[in-house]
Amino acid sequence: MSDRRRFGWTLCLLLVCGLLVAGCEGINWKGGDISGKATEVAWFLEVPGYVFSPFMLTGAWVAIKIASVAMVIGVVLGLLLALMRLSSFWPVSAFAWFYIWFVRGTPQLLQLVFIFNALPQWGLKFSIFTSAVIGFALNEAAFSAELIRGGIQSVSRNQSVAAASLGMGWLLTLRRIVLPQAMRAILPGLANNTISMIKLTSIASIIFVNELTFRSQQIVAQNFKFFTVFAAAGIIYLTITSAISLLQIWLERRFDWERERAEPGVSTLDRLLGLGLGRKSPDAVAPATAPVLIDRQTKPRSEDAKPGHGWIENLLAETATQARQGETFVVCRNVWKSYGGREVLRGIDFDVKRGEVVTILGPSGSGKSTLLRMINHLEPMDKGEITVDGQAIGYSRMGDAPKPSGNLARARADARIGMVFQHFNLFNHFTALQNVTEAPIHVHGVDSTKAGMLGTQLLRSVGLQRHVEHLPHRLSGGQQQRVAIARALAIRPKLMLFDEPTSALDPELVGEVLAVMRRLAEAGMTMIVVTHEVRFAREVADRVVFMDAGEIVEQGPPSQVIDDPQHERTRRFLRMVVREESEEDVAAFN
Amino acid sequence: MQFGKSLAAVIALAATVSFAPSFAMADDSKCEPDKLGEKYPSLAGRTIRIGGDAQTAPFFMRDPANFDNIVGFDADLARAVFDCHGVKYEWFIGAWSGILPAVVADQADVFFDNLYYTPERAKQVDYVLYMQAATGALTQTGNPKNINSVDDYCGHAIAVGVGTVEEPVVRKKSDECKAAGKAEINILTYPDPASGIRLIEDGRADIVMYDLTVTDEQVKMHPDKFARAFMTLSGFNIGSAVRNGDNDLNKAILDGLRILQANGTQAELFKKYGIDPALQVTAEVKTE
Fold first, then answer.
1. What ipTM score was computed for the predicted complex, to two decimals?
2. In the list A8, A185, A454, B101, which could disulfide-bond A151, CB 3.0-4.6 Å?
3. Is the entire prediction scored with pTM above 0.90?
4. DSSP codes joined into one string, B156-167
5. B231 touches A at CB < 8 Å
6. If you measure CA to CA, which chain A residue comes closest to B225?
7. CA-to-CA dists, residue A240 to A19, A168, A228, A253, angstroms
């Protein structure tokens, strides 16, 4: 047993003992006060007899049976209701809202009596046990629905956006990505509900459920030993609820990815007292030691950003993208999009050839990110046509009134478009390797051993072989973004979309990400990059597109658009960006 | 003539057929467990669910020697009634206020637990009355507030059971106090007799009104804590209650109680549980 565990157990025991002693003392004092006789000792000695009486224990077992069955059914129904509440189809969400409003707002006693005594009039006659289970499950469903909804909403939306970009369907996303992360927020509430349900089963005495409290009352009614019998019931309840609390601790550890993989050897006690702070694991130090960047555009700064084993080149060769280099690959025709009346894209026409690297420049709000997200149908378009490799993605009809086809997730998966986000959007509860293998295994059905091998190779080729088992929060921004690139590459993409991949990074970490992108470009990957990195655009891009106010202002080779812009808007933007860049360079020097 | 003769013969035959069994085979004034199917056809094969709360000593409670057993005056009386007819039965233990709704909804068959007769209740169920009720006013030893009748209630803390017949009596009295310019009654309500009696024990109530037998039992057990302030014959009768239309069951209870009253069993049970035998009333069906 580790120090941490031993400490935990000792603390638990001390707390329970303390509570028991305090409780008993309090009751004892009161009992003695009223009777004025020396009955305290006898009172105390009689308690164990009631604790272990089969009559009382049977009552406890009844409470446990009802609560556990009702809890399982209630949580499943609650999940369903939570999803209905989150539905964008209003009748569904309104129904769920109404159910929760009604069940939470009416007395449970009334609900139980209704189920037990009124439903038989319509031929629905349930046994005592079944009636109680139904009553408690329906009630729990309403309460846990709100808990689960809160948990789901506590998971950042960028997690499901990333999952969608990988072609994961909503159910898969819910099961693999959202719920495991939501559990952290949901579990404490569910444990509360379980404990209160165990105790609340006593109200089911109205429908003839003979559980612990009701049985205690019956004994008291006959012998009037309130304190003795209720104290015994209290001890039984404490035992049951302690078990639930322990289960809660175990489950919370299981779903707490940060704690789960905490450094072994540092005990809870040490951490509480701050003793572990002096020690640092080699890994924890690693991200901070990247050397200061001098030329942040061209050279990878840290050792681990160097090319691995040419696996990216192999990957591209396998997907046979080089076979028909030069033909038109992505086509956007007259694409329109508005948000709440504000036009974000105004008739965009835009082509990308196979193997071409296109960077999109433009001020914030120019619509460049929106355009990118419409290429893999993360955002629906209002009007227009977009095809990738001749295929519409998730549209059965395009043009003036685009019509989405049935299975959008499948269409995204089949299109094999990799996407890299500004804020990385890595799955927080997965290791670097799990992030990379998630889509190959669960979307494309790749054997997990094979996917693991490919994932390891990919991570090595972006220079992260030492971080395969690390969780995202242990990695620096640059490392996270390289994991994100590896994750996008793992689906063997035919096209890579980069949405400001370096904007959220500290200046000294930008280089390592750009280095990976540069190698991808050199290997012949078709890429569309939304960026502010003018130097990257100049050196790597085949073509630069400048957008402003939802329109393409000008486009052409970097030498033309960046070095000799024709439009005033382009010139103004470039002047500003270049000035910022040089300031950053100066800052990096200093 | 021929026709008249035939008619007479038919009538005679019909009369013989219909009356013969009752003359020859069954007697309502006797316990005949083996003739259940003849006397009360719908009870054959049925297991009667006897509703009670097991919280109303000495009427319906757990056996202190073995908590799995149900004992008490009402429980023993019900047991004797059904044993007399050979009816199978089981105990249906739930909170007191849930039992009447359960009988009405056919989730239980008979309420046999210190149930007072009221016309309101009798609209939903059929009663067989077997005793009259007296209400005891329980107070602390020595009757410190010197309360000797309902007329002394104004300004005091009086506890009554939720949904009991005493509750409206005390509420009405409180209104009278107010009308007479006196302090209103501080009415406390309790869910089960034990918690009502605790109100006297810890001084939160001056009087707890409950069935006389129950309160007297407390005085007997703890003369150092409790005393009877006064008692009233409330005018209420106590009876068993079955669902409207469950006629065989009600008839079986009526016949059974008549037999038990005739052979002295009910009187013995009164004695066994320390209840005044004078409270017995002749068994009769009563309903609205």
1. 0.75
2. A185
3. no
4. SEEEEETT-THH
5. no
6. A35
7. 15, 41, 19, 20
